[in-house]
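Students often ask why inverse folding is considered easier than folding. One informal answer: many sequences map to the same fold, so there is more than one right answer. In these notes we will look at a single instance of the problem. The structure comes first.
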């Protein structure tokens, strides 16, 4: 019996080398574990960096808003202290200007006790207020609150009311 010419002959006996090496099986799970661990670490670093950036951005925005709000209240109080009533009126928000004319504002403020010294607190972004520790001409101190609004065209803070 003869074999067909296109069929290869059977390999010789024991000790025969296969035509290609078999893939290694030892350490396969270990390599996969290391790969997944490194990949997870990289993802955590990237996400952690993003979270840290958002926290930093949030705190810098809060600081900028606080600074702008305090500057608006400080400018308003300086105008009142200097008896620059027209300047103080110009720093009021639109709602306050609609409720009171410049002449009415001047008359009302001239009749009030003048604030000579003040210390500003931290801007409350939810209530849009700044606490003010005010000292009057006669030495009395009082805790006041400046209510603010933002000018829709400029974005600047404006004082709407200064009261208890």
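Output (designed amino acids):
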């Amino acid at each position: 019996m003869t074999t067909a010419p296109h069929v290869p002959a059977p390999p010789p006996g024991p000790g025969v080398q296969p035509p290609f090496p078999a893939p290694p099986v030892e350490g396969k799970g270990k390599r996969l574990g290391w790969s997944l661990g490194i990949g997870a670490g990289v993802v955590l670093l990237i996400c952690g960096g993003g979270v840290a950036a958002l926290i930093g951005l949030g705190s810098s925005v809060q600081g900028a808003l606080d600074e702008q709000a305090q500057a608006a209240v400080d400018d308003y109080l300086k105008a009142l202290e200097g008896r620059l009533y027209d300047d103080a009126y110009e720093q009021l928000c639109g709602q306050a200007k609609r409720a009171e004319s410049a002449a009415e504002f001047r008359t009302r403020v001239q009749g009030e006790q003048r604030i000579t010294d003040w210390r500003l607190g931290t801007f409350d972004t939810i209530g849009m207020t700044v606490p003010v520790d005010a000292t009057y001409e006669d030495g009395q101190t009082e805790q006041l609150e400046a209510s603010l609004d933002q000018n829709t065209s400029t974005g600047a803070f404006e004082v709407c009311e200064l009261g208890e």
